[in-house]
Protein: Protein-tyrosine sulfotransferase
Organism: Prymnesium parvum
Amino acid sequence: MITLRMLCFGVGQLAFDKEAVPTLALIGIDKGGTSEAFVQLALRGFGASETKELCCLCRASFLQVYRCYDEAFNLSFTGQLTVDATPRYLYHHAVADRMAAFSPSTTILVMLREPLSRIQSLYNHWQTTGKIAVNTSIPLQEHLQLEFAFLSSKETRASVSALFNSSSVDAFEVLQSLRSRIHSCTRSMGIAACTKARHWQDTYKSSVRPYSYLLSSLYDVCLRKWSTTMLHPSRPGKFAVVQSEAFFANESHLLDLIEIPDWHVQRKQLHVNKGDFHHEYSDAAALSRSLAMRLRNWLEKPRLSLLSHLHEMSSMGALVVPSMHTAGNWWAKKWDSSHICAPPEADSICRKCACK
Ligand SMILES: Nc1ncnc2c1ncn2[C@@H]1O[C@H](COP(=O)(O)OS(=O)(=O)O)[C@@H](OP(=O)(O)O)[C@H]1O
């Protein structure tokens, strides 16, 4: 149904519930622009906590979740616009269900960045800052080759096929089980599932956190879990999916979705640091054009699944920016080799592989 708001503002605006804690959850994804979005939301009165990634719903019990939000926001103070911007929520095995139980009327915002760019950005961030215990001692190219070997091994092939072909909820379970297999595979030696990727085992030490760049690019599997849990046609405007590239090009693509409700009472003005962008990428984050193309081809079916899901979500009241009909954006068009950037003098290598 087209509402008056939609006629005035394009895709429409988000709806916020005074009782919801948090009012808004920015659930993903890492390197999708969530830091800058958090800053812009804080400037508009969202916040109450200077910590962006509260991860309160990572806690298992209802009481722990409540205490975490109470500590962050002081829940005795009503009328605040609160935000929990934790990008890892999108993938978390339990958070969607916890959110539905703890605060079903929280508004959900997901920012999705074209997967190839996100992978390079994330690897580069971890490698150059060294802040996180994820293994970046091998170049990204090698890491991805190991992942492809693992995901096409005899032991994982059936699960990967189920992942690409199952219904939403089944696929989410398969994804979680594969992620945990990668976890144990990379943490311990001699696991049968790792046979084909023996080098992978040798590469990791038990102290480093294993991470699958490939599995974390299957956005739609997780998004389906979230939409099944939190999107209801009777509550339009409570779920938005915004493409990071649209936000990067013009932040109003996101900010125009947000109208501050009348009931809002500002408790304190936050002084959050502005997000930093446009990092130089290190050589270790570079990929060969052929691997970049392999990745793109691997992601083509998930892209089509995402696109059809966005249509369904939109018909159920979700806001999707840019619309699936807007030409020239990554979730609406097939990628080919012309979308893999590389300087002419370094034909086989690309530092930032994705280009328009
Ligand atoms: N407004 C704007 N314009 C252009 N680019 C932008 C913008 N906001 C964020 N970015 C880019 O987003 C990447 C950082 O994303 P996140 O803030 O989500 O990172 S984090 O997960 O919170 O660490 C990081 O990407 P890379 O530079 O490619 O690493 C930022 O450059």
In short: The chain has 14 helices and seven strands. Residues 168-187 form the longest helix (20 residues).
